[in-house]
Structure formats: C-alpha cells, structure tokens
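Notes, p. 3: input format for complexes.
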Amino acid sequence: MMSTREPAEIERDISNIDSTLLTVSEIRSSLKYFTKLVQSDKKGPNFVHLFSDRLNAVKRDLNTLSSQGENLKGALEHAQIVANENKFNWALIKSEAEKEAAEEEIRFREEEANSAKAKETGSLVKANAEYAYKQLSSIVLEQKPALIAPPKLFFTTYIDQWMSQKKPTDIVFTITFEEEERVTFTGSTCRIKICARKSLVANLELEYERNSDSLTVHQYDIKGVKEEKNFWQDSQYLVFQKVNLLATDAFEDMLVFFAKESLYNMLDWFVSYHDLFTAPCYRCHKILQFDSPQYKYLPPMVRTWAKKLPVIDNDSPVARQAPGTVYHMRCYIEYKNNHAM
Ligand SMILES: [Zn+2]
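Output follows (341 residues plus zinc ion):
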C-alpha cells in the first residue's frame, strides 16, 4: 500500500488544508451576516436584494468547500494510512501545537489591545482638537452662515464607495486610515493600511490632486501578515520583496487614469492578492514553483493589473487578460515575452 508522499505534495496538502480552513471561516462569516440580516428588525426596501445576495454568498462558499474537500481526499487517505501505522511522535506534535496556539493567542490579544488603545487615544485627541478649534473660531472668525458646502473628501468618499460596491463580499479585506484624510491647497493626503487576511498588509501614503484629477503614491510598503512572527520568514521575505518590486511597475500603469479610477485599480489589485498562498498559476497551474535551493518553493506572487491599452493593439488577435490573473514571476515574464508586452 502506498504511504509515501513527496515533500512537494505535502506542501500542497498543507496549502489546500489552509485554504479549506479559510473557507470554513468565511462560511461562518457569511452565515453570520445572513442570520443578522434575517433577524434584523428594520427590513429596508432593498431587503429582498440583500437576502438573495447574502444567500448566494453562503451557497458560493459551500460550493467552494465541497470542491476543496475533493482536493483533500489524497491527503486524507494518506493521513489515514499513516495513522493506522501509528508512527507519530505525539509528544513533539502536541508541544508544537500548543506552542503555536499560545503564540496565536498572544498575537491576537496584542492586536486587540493595540487597536482599542489607538482608537481611544485617536478619538480623544480628535474631540479635544475639535473643541479647541470651535472655541478659537468663535473668537477669531466672523460668524458667517455656511454658504459653501464643505469639500468632499476624496479618499474617504471613494474608499467607502469601493468597499460597499466593488469589494467582493466573500473576501476578508479591510482598509483603515492610519492618518486621517487632510485637505491641502491642491487636494488632500492620507495614509492608509490595507489588510488582506492571510496574505498581505500594505501601508500607503497617498495624495489626490484636484486640478489634474490625479493620484500619487508617495510611499508604500507591502508585508506579510505574520511577518513579525518569524513564521516561514525567509520565504515570505522574498515573496514580499518581489511583490514590492512588482508594485513599482504596477502603480506606474494603474495611476495614469483619473483619480477615482486609479484608486479603484489599486484597491482591485490589492484585493486580488487575497489568495496569494492558495491560488494556482494561470500558466503552469501549480501553486508552488521551485525558486532556488535557498528559498525553495514560492507561490505565484504576480497578480496582473489595470493598464491603458495602446491604440495600435486594439485589433490584435490576442485577447487581453482581466486584471488579477495569477502568475509565478517566471511564468509572468514568459507570458510577457510571448506577447511582446
Ligand atoms: Zn507558474
């Protein structure tokens, strides 16, 4: 009876198990939303629409789970054979599992404490500043009726709109303002933190220019979610170094659009990384590709992005791919060479 399994297969199994667990937690979250909607007292005019939307999200997740279950069959059979042979080092497994659970718990508590503290201080400072400003303006400024409506804040407005209209409902993806949007003479600036669960965290310093209706990224930094944890640190380091490099090219292409479209392109691109460690490459259909003896296997870290098409190319027979297509770096370069991009 076959009971050996190659390291590459085991790595794929782990990746499959990981994505299945993620689906389970997404099912829980979509079920929670669905229940909340059904139980809510206020059923607005779009209740029917929301109801079928939420129900579809649950159905979709369940379908994903059943297909992922198929992928796990091999691994489960192998586990059963190994379990029958009973050749495990139980003491080691138990201590490793306990250690990891404890670490996870500490990290979670820290995150919780930090975000609560930050919120508290933030709102306190804001309240104080607003109070002081009101006091001051009542002395310094002439009391005039507000004739001009306050300027619409670009990032606040459109990030909100993207989250409610464009973000896929079944993906855990958050955007927080690390520095609130500030109006400048020419437009506004802000610093945001993007977090795609289990894949990446990005910090971005952004500026909106009103006259040219354009967007600039002043600084950015893309990291792994668990980077501080020293978990698979080497390989993660390289993956995110490569994503950072790629972002330079990607931003250049996706920011030549008008500001709102540029912002949407960027958010679409980041959300397409939600399956960084689980999606197979479009070209070679594999998840892990051997990189080097030092870094071993890497997932496909390229997600294609929105790009303005050159006019001459319009009747080229090669259909352009939708943004968000998954590639290994090497497969992507190959694809670009083949299509002379
Ligand atoms: Zn590939």
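The longest strand covers residues 173-183.
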